[in-house]
Design a protein that fits this description.
Elements (H helix, E strand, L loop, with lengths): L3 H10 L4 E6 H12 L3 H4 L10 H11 L12 E4 L1 H20 L4 E4 L3 H17 L12 E6 L2 E10 L2 E5 L18 H12 L7 E5 H9 L4 E5 L4 H8 L5 E4 L10 H10 L5
Parallel strand pairs: 3-7, 7-8, 8-9
Antiparallel strand pairs: 1-2, 4-5, 5-6
Helix pairs in contact: 4-9, 5-10, 6-10, 7-8
Length: 271
């Protein structure tokens, strides 16, 4: 089993934690937009509490380990690797609990180019454990507002992991899809599952809008988040999201493989 110490060293070496590529300026901009309840940053969450920028800086310092100093306005963000490890432990415990009861799960990502392999390994392991890995609304269209205007995407699945693709993109089961923070794909998937009479997921696994969108609708949701994604951590603080792992969500895809091994080992799903 990959030890906690060995994984901690990997997190720092791969810059998944420690000094990460996300800048303080980018994170602070996200906190300002979240405080203003900009839907691009809420990504499906409807916060119950009032969150000012100072509140968000304090929350992210507690949850991620970024600087709590409001006068720190430039440079690179820092994620405490021990907080990442604690998040992975909670994340794995939720997956292990779902596996033990053979719960249906839904897995989706807005970072397919980076995180598809991580989630696909979870899907394979959960399926082998007897969980139904759901694929509702396959091929459905989803209209998402982007910085380029309204764009239509197609919802698809690769190895049990949901993602969106631009229309006309090939779909051989190998290609990845588009980057998105939108909660609309998970809403589309959950609505299709309900209209078909189920089953509905007992656990939703993913990032961005997949986690916040599902959690806001009352589904248990867990995921990964960077320091410029305050919505997931607010959701966790308010009890809408069950577990969040703070890390850089855009490094090389192979850098996440040790995390996969660690999670599957802790969840007793190693193959």
């Amino acid at each position: 089993m990959l030890s906690r110490g060995a994984l901690r060293a990997h997190l720092l070496a791969a810059r998944l934690a420690g000094v990460v590529a996300t800048s303080r300026e980018v994170s602070l901009r996200s906190y300002r937009l979240f405080a203003a309840r900009d839907p691009r940053v809420l990504i499906g969450l409807d916060p119950e509490w009032t969150w000012g920028q100072r509140d968000l800086v304090e929350l992210m310092a507690d949850k991620c380990g970024v600087s709590a100093d409001p006068a720190c306005t430039s440079g690179l963000d820092v994620i405490d690797p021990d907080r990442t490890l604690d998040g992975l432990d909670a994340f794995a415990d939720r997956i292990g609990a779902a596996a033990r009861r053979s719960a249906p799960v839904l897995i989706g990502t807005g970072h397919p180019h980076r995180l598809l392999g991580f989630y696909a390994a979870l899907a394979d392991a959960l399926s082998s454990a007897g969980c139904a890995v759901l694929t509702p609304a396959h091929g459905h269209c989803v209209d998402i507002t982007t910085r380029f205007g309204l764009r239509t995407y197609n919802l698809g699945y690769v190895r049990g992991v949901a993602l969106v693709r631009e229309p006309g993109a090939p779909s051989t089961g190998r290609e990845t899809g588009a980057h998105t923070h939108s909660p609309l794909p998970v809403r589309t998937a959950l609505a299709a599952a309900a209209e078909a009479g189920g089953p509905l997921p007992e656990l939703v696994i993913g990032d961005h809008g997949w986690v916040c969108g599902a959690g806001q609708l009352g589904f248990e949701a867990i995921g990964l988040a960077d320091t410029n994604d305050p919505a997931l951590f607010v959701g966790e603080a308010e009890g809408v999201v069950s577990a969040v792992v703070p890390l850089d969500d855009a490094v090389r895809s192979d850098y996440y493989r040790p995390l996969t091994r660690y999670v599957l080992n802790r969840a007793c799903l190693s193959q």
